[in-house]
């Protein structure tokens, strides 16, 4: 097929794809109901009666970026605490447990104050207070029915029960048979009616172990932590989402209650439900259960804005491990009008085996085993990073990858993307959308996420039209604005040769 014929074929496919996206939106609008309850909670219901099941996603518009100094890690803690039940599920005697949990907090506050005293600390007193706190935990644990919430969901046919915490949000989700919808409404609403923080310190230990595994024991984890703190000197994006270890060792259930009351309010949440659910029948049930959650004002917007970067920043870790290269450039938030241009550049540069970085650094030059990138790191709600990461082949150093990467970046800045290449990017954007529509579970997460970030779930479909409008001139403009040395942060792991082993019999 000639190049001209290839272009005509791609153009025809693109026209069909964009038309299909528009039809998809029209069809979805007819089956979608959006309602805001009196308490401020936003509900989205997409009727999809292909099978007698439904999936949901609850997005709380609070992630690690909403934490403040001293309480980092709390957003992630709620991902763990949300499976602990309520005053009926997960307890043998809620009145008795409440009293026991109050004792846990009283003894922890005394212990924490004593152990953090900077001068004249009485170690004997600290050990005594720690024992009293741990004894109080043991007393409270006697009231706990372990995993009862999870077992209740699973015994009713629930699958995929999980949660996740990002810099921008926290999400909860699972799927259930449609005939258990009212049970779901009760269980899910109970998570947000009040904080039930049983086994808080047990889960805090779990989170600390996660940090040890992901950061302290991982060279790439350590690099990412240093890279983020170097790229963001003011904004919370500079703090690892799992929290500082010293904060995790200190935060209390009392701190968690304060965070919950501020962030876990209906006005700061969106719930999307997709599947065999009729909105007319579901809404009264939702009103009955979720309407019980007290109305409260939404949290104040984040105050801190990352100042403009005006000098290149570099962090180098020298370790006996696989070399690794990171390069990030500040870009506007995901709500910026240029977001579709950044999305197109991501697909062009780093999306799969057809991307420029893969073809140049992996396939042709064979200097990397992986060369990719991600747009919107570590979040999208605020100004963030367009980031590249490369893993070199044996014999190549991390620093040797900078020049070939920047050669590809310069092409973006100085050469127009060909019509064929740009059309390919746009077709892949359509394919990506179709993949997101495949499952009820995936679609529920997307609808809730887009409603939260953009204030309109339809943005999920409209992105295709926005990417369709991207031109070679747009890409050159944004590339020249973004990919400049003074806006760049570099992170590298340079391999440190392991110490030589002394031969047997050699003197030490």
In words, what does this structure look like?
The longest helix has 29 residues. This protein has 2 domains: 197 residues, Cytochrome Bc1 Complex, Chain A, domain 1, CATH 3.30.830; 183 residues, 2-Layer Sandwich (Cytochrome Bc1 Complex, Chain A, domain 1), CATH 3.30.830. A 6-stranded mixed beta sheet has the order 1-2-6-3-5-4, with helices on both faces. Strands 7-11-8-10-9 form a 5-stranded mixed beta sheet. The chain has 18 helices and 11 strands. The chain is an alpha+beta fold.
Offer a few descriptive terms.
508 residues, alpha+beta, Cytochrome Bc1 Complex, Chain A, domain 1, 2 domains, 6-stranded mixed sheet, 18 helices, 48% helix, globular, disordered N terminus
At a glance:
The protein has 18 helices and eleven strands. By secondary structure, it is α+β, with helices and mostly antiparallel strands.
Q: What's the helix and strand layout?
A:
Elements lengths: L2 H29 E5 L5 E6 L5 E8 L13 H8 L12 H22 L7 H19 L6 H8 L3 E7 L4 E8 L3 H13 L6 H17 L2 H13 L13 H4 L4 H11 L5 E7 L3 H12 L22 E7 L4 E8 L7 H12 L5 H9 L3 E10 L6 E9 L9 H13 L4 H18 L3 H15 L4 H10 L3 H11 L5 E8 L13
Helix pairs in contact: 1-15, 1-17, 2-7, 2-10, 3-4, 6-11, 12-18, 14-18, 15-17
Q: Give the strand content.
A: 15-25%
**What is the alpha-carbon Rg in Å?**
26 Å
Give the helix proportion (percent range).
Answer: 40-55%
CATH topology of the largest domain: Cytochrome Bc1 Complex, Chain A, domain 1
Order of helices and strands: HEEEHHHHEEHHHHHEHEEHHEEHHHHHE
The CATH architecture category of the largest domain equals 2-Layer Sandwich
Unreliably modeled segments: 1-23
**CATH class designation of the largest domain:** Alpha Beta
């Amino acid at each position: 097929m000639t190049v001209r014929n290839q272009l005509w074929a791609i153009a025809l496919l693109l026209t069909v794809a964009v038309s299909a996206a528009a039809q998809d939106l029209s069809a979805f609008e007819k089956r979608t109901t959006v309602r805001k309850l009196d308490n401020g909670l936003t509900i989205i219901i997409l009727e999809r009666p292909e099978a007698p099941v439904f999936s949901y996603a609850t997005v709380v518009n609070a992630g690690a970026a909403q934490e403040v100094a001293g309480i980092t890690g709390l957003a992630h803690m709620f991902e763990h605490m949300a499976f602990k039940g309520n005053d009926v599920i997960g307890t043998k005697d809620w009145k008795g447990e409440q009293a026991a949990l109050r004792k846990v907090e009283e003894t922890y506050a005394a212990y924490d104050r004593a152990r953090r005293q900077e001068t004249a600390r009485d170690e004997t007193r600290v050990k005594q207070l720690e024992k009293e706190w741990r004894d109080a935990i043991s007393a409270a644990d006697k009231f706990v029915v372990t995993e009862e919430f999870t077992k209740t969901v699973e015994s009713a046919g629930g699958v995929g029960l999980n949660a996740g915490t990002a810099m921008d949000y926290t999400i909860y989700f699972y799927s259930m048979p449609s005939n258990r919808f009212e049970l779901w409404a009760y269980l899910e609403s109970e998570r947000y009616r009040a904080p039930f923080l049983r086994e808080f310190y047990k889960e805090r230990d779990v989170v600390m172990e996660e940090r040890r595994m992901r950061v302290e024991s991982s060279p790439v984890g350590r690099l990412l932590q240093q890279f983020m703190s170097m790229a963001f000197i003011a904004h919370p994006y500079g703090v690892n989402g799992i929290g500082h270890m010293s904060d995790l060792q200190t935060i209390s259930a009392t701190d968690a209650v304060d965070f919950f009351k501020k962030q876990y309010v209906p006005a700061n949440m969106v719930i999307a439900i997709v599947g065999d659910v009729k909105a007319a029948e579901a809404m009264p049930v939702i009103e009955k259960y979720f309407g019980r959650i007290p109305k409260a004002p939404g949290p104040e917007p984040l105050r801190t804005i990352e100042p403009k970067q005006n000098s290149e920043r570099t962090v180098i870790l020298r370790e006996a491990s696989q070399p690794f290269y990171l390069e990030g450039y500040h870009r506007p938030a995901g709500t910026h009008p240029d977001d579709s241009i950044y999305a197109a550049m991501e697909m062009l540069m780093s999306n799969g085996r057809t991307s420029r970085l893969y073809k140049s650094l992996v396939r042709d030059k064979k200097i990397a085993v992986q060369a990719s990138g991600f747009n919107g790191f570590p979040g999208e709600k605020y100004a963030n990073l367009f980031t590249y990461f490369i893993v070199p082949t044996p014999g190549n150093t991390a620093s040797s990858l900078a020049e070939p990467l920047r050669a590809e970046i310069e092409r973006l800045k100085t050469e127009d993307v060909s019509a064929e290449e740009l059309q390919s990017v746009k077709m892949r954007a359509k394919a990506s959308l179709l993949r997101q529509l495949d499952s009820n579970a995936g679609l529920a997460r997307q609808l809730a996420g887009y409603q939260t970030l953009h204030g309109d779930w339809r943005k999920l479909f409209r992105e295709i039209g926005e990417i369709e409008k991207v031109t070679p001139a747009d890409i050159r403009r944004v590339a020249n604005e973004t990919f400049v040395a003074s806006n760049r942060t570099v992170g590298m792991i340079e391999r440190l040769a392991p110490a030589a082993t002394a031969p047997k019999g050699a003197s030490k």
